[in-house]
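Problem 12. The chain below contains 445 residues. Write out its predicted structure in C-alpha cell notation.
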Amino acid sequence: MEAALNAPARLTAKQWLICATAGLGFAFDLYEIVVQGIVLRPMLMELGPYQPGTKEFNHWAGLMLFLPAVIGGLGGLVGGYLTDRIGRKRVLVASIVLYGVAAFCSGMATSLVEVIFWRCLTVAGVCIEFVAAIAWLTELFPDSRRRESVLGFSQVCASMGNLLIAGVYFVAVTWAEQFPEVHGGHSPWRYTLIFGALPAIPLMIIRPFLPESPLWMARRAAGTLRRPRIRELFEPRLRNATIVSTLLVGCCYALAFGVLQHIPRIVPGLPPVVDLPRQNQEQWVSWVHLHADVGAILGRLALAGLVIWFASRLPMLKAFLWASLLVFPLVLLGPATGDAAVFKYGVLALTLLVSLQYSFWGNYLPRVFPLHLRGTGESFAASFGGRVLAPIAALATTQLSNIMPGASPALKLAHSTALVAVVACVCAIVLSRWLPEPGPELLED
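Solution.
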C-alpha cells in the first residue's frame, strides 16, 4: 500500500477514492458553514417571528452565527486530539456521520433554541472533519509535490459546497410546494438544511475501502507514537507558529463570519431587489450566491497552482491580505451597494480573496506541526482561531449594524461589514510579520 501511495505517476483507484472522500467532506464542510447565512433571514422571520432590521432580529442573527461556530470550534479541539490518539480515518468517518445526522435534525427543528442546538453539533462535526481530512491526506501522500497538489485541488471541492447551496436553495425556493410537508409547511430553509445530511450515506458504503494513514499506523505498531499534549504546542520550537497561525486564521475566518455570511441579508435590501416579491428576493439571494461560488472556485484553483510552483508561502499570504484590505471596503462602501446587478460581481471578488486564504491555511498548517501533534496543532489553529475567535466578528457585525449610518437596514449592515473587514485585514497584515516559513519536508517527532 505504501508503494502505491508513494508512486509519483498517475493516481491509483484507491487514491482516487481517498481524494473523492476528502473532497466530498470538504464540499459539505463549506455547505454547512455557509448555509446558515443563506437560511438565516427566512428562518428568523418564520420561527421568531422577527422582522429584518429590528434589534430582536439582529440579536438572534448574531447568536445563530456566533454560538454554533464557537461550540463547533471547541468540539474541533477535542476532535483534533482524537485524530492523533485513535486515528485519522476513524475520526474522519465519525465526524461526517455526526454532522449529517445533526444537519437533518436542524431542518426538522420547531424553535430557534432547537436550531441552535443542532447547528452546534453540525459545525462541531465540520470542524473535526476538516482537521482529520487534512492530516489524513498529508500522510497518505508523502511525495511533497504530489501532497501539495492533492491538498490544493481536493480543497477546490470545498467550493462545490457553495455551488450546492446556490442550486439547492434556488430549487427549494422555486419548487418548495412540490416537496413533502415538514411540520405542516413547505419552508425552503428547512429543505436546504436537510440536504446537508447527504454525505453520510455514500460514506457508509465506501468506509471499508478507505486506508488509515500509513505513517500513523507504523508509529502506533512500533510503539513509538507519542501521546499528543496541547502544552507541547507552546514549547519553544512550536510556540511562535502556534500563536501566530492561530491569530492569523482567526483574522482570515473573521472575513467570512463578519462579512460573507451577511451578504444574503444585504441582497434583499438593494435596488432593484427590494421592490420584488419575497420569492423573487430569495431567488436573487441564490443568484448572488452563485457568483460567490464562482469566486470561491477561482480562489481555490489559483492557490492550488501557486503552492505547487512557488516554494515561499509568506509573500503569497501578504499579497492576499493587502488585496483584501483594498477590495473589501471598495465593494461594501462603494457604488456596488446601489445596484444588486453590480454587487454580485463585487461579492465574487470578495469570495475569491477569502478562498485563497482558506486554501493557504489548509496547505500551511500540516507542515508546521510534527506527526503526533499534527491533528492537535491543526485543530488548535483552525478550531480555536477560526471557530472561537473569528465568530466574534459575526457578533460585532450584527451589533454594529444597529448604530451604523445608512438609508436602509441593508446599507447599515453593509457598512458594518466593511468596518469589520478593515479591522481584520489590518490585524492580519501586522501579525503576518511573525509567521514562520515552513520547511520543505514534514516535521518529524
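Discussion. The chain has one domain: 14-218+227-434. Students who got a different answer should revisit the alignment rule from Section 12.3.
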